[in-house]
Amino acid sequence: MLNAAIVGLGWWGKILTQTLAKSDKITVVKLADVDADGGGAFAAEHGIDFTTDYSAVLADDAVDAVVLATPHSLHEEQIVTAAEAGKHIFCEKPFCLNRASALRAMEAIEKAGVQVAIGHERRFEPPIMDALALARDGKLGALMHVEANFSHDIFAALDDANWRLKTDESPAGGLTATLIHLMDLSINLFGQPDRVLASVECHGGVVKNGDTLTAQVKFENGCTASLNAFTHTPFFSRFAIFGSDGWTEVRDKAHVQAPEGWFFTTCLKDGKAETIEYEVATPVLSNLECFSDAIAGKATYPNTPEQIVRNVSLLEAIVKSTGSGEIVKIER
Ligand SMILES: NC(=O)c1ccc[n+]([C@@H]2O[C@H](COP(=O)([O-])OP(=O)(O)OC[C@H]3O[C@@H](n4cnc5c(N)ncnc54)[C@H](O)[C@@H]3O)[C@@H](O)[C@H]2O)c1
């Protein structure tokens, strides 16, 4: 059993706590948040020890791992100090906000020899795993392109002062909220991204950091990806892979916070599209439990440190491209 502390008890930290209540591999032994009232009340409700002091979490020998669900700009320092304290680290996405931060955080992790994991639960969605397997097994022929969209309007209800709408914390509209998941899946399939052209617009005027983000990514292997995230439209999510012999598309019925299952469509050489439905699954729990299995030496965690840093490098290039309007090379 892995003893974990969840740090940051906002929207997602609460979901992670509730998710881990169903785990027989991970026990949440501590909860932390700088908000003494809100965090304390949530912890009391769940009967879990609470602190406002992150250093007390790191000093606690009963804590094997930290699960970071804090604002993005805090991740780098929280990762470095957790690694120095010998704690395994599950960090919510994005890992960091720029490549230099990601490299520093990863260096601390590697030096400490602790396990790292990242909140890209979409890799654990059964239809996404099956779509990637179809592509990897050659069933779609020569791979060409990913076309994907992950949109919702959850942030349209936020107060303008919220960090999720600030360009220093959440640059380029839906980049760190949803597009980052599509970037991770594309990197997982195609490898090293080479260059990107991206733009962000604010049509509705409500989601102040931008509501319409679109990025065209070219990978070193010649494949391309069109990735979109709209944050002022009702939920919509699709991930499609195109190859010379066929295509496959995964459509989510609902957001992962309250999943309802998926539609999975494939069309192979005969040109006949077939759609099947997938039942609800628990990708958030599967991701966390894979992290604990990796620590126990029972599994290999699928996101490699190299892929995690690569995704942050792509993030940084997308931010640059939305600012300049130019094609930006991805640092490596
Ligand atoms: N994997 C996913 O699908 C998914 C979904 C939603 C959010 N997230 C990620 O989770 C993270 C948190 O997002 P959120 O929407 O829950 O934000 P939020 O604003 O709802 O919650 C953040 C919490 O962190 C707390 N906090 C701030 N500074 C802190 C500190 N120094 N120490 C401890 N706690 C601190 C805040 O008080 C707040 O309760 C982000 O990185 C986000 O991208 C991931």
What's the gyration radius in Å? 19 Å
**What is the makeup of the main sheet?**
9 strands, mixed
Secondary-structure class? alpha/beta
Uncertain segments are: none
User: Element order, helices and strands?
Assistant: EHEHEHEHEHEHEHEEEEEEEHHE
Mean pLDDT: 97
Please report which band the strand proportion falls in: under 5%, 5-15%, 15-25%, 25-35%, 35-45% or over 45%. 25-35%
Global outline: globular
Instruction: Tell me the CATH topology of the largest domain.
Output: Dihydrodipicolinate Reductase, domain 2
Helix content: 25-40%
Number of domains: 2
How many E strands?
15
- Can you tell me the CATH class of the largest domain? Alpha Beta
Helix count? 9
Query: How far from one another are the termini?
Result: 37 Å
Q: How are the strands of the biggest sheet laid out side by side?
A: 14-13-12-11-7-10-9-8-15
Instruction: Catalogue the ligands.
Output: nicotinamide-adenine-dinucleotide
Explain what this protein looks like in three dimensions.
This protein is an alpha/beta fold and 332 residues long. The chain has two domains: 117 residues, NAD(P)-binding Rossmann-like Domain (Rossmann fold, 3-Layer(aba) Sandwich), CATH 3.40.50.720; 208 residues, 2-Layer Sandwich (Dihydrodipicolinate Reductase, domain 2), CATH 3.30.360. The chain has nine helices and 15 strands. The strands form two sheets. It has a nine-stranded mixed β-sheet, with helices on one face. Strands 3-2-1-4-5-6 form a six-stranded parallel β-sheet, with helices on both faces. A hairpin with a 5-residue loop joins strand 13 and strand 14. The radius of gyration is 19 Å and the shape is globular. It starts with a strand and ends with a strand. The site of nicotinamide-adenine-dinucleotide (NAD) has 23 residues, from helix 1.
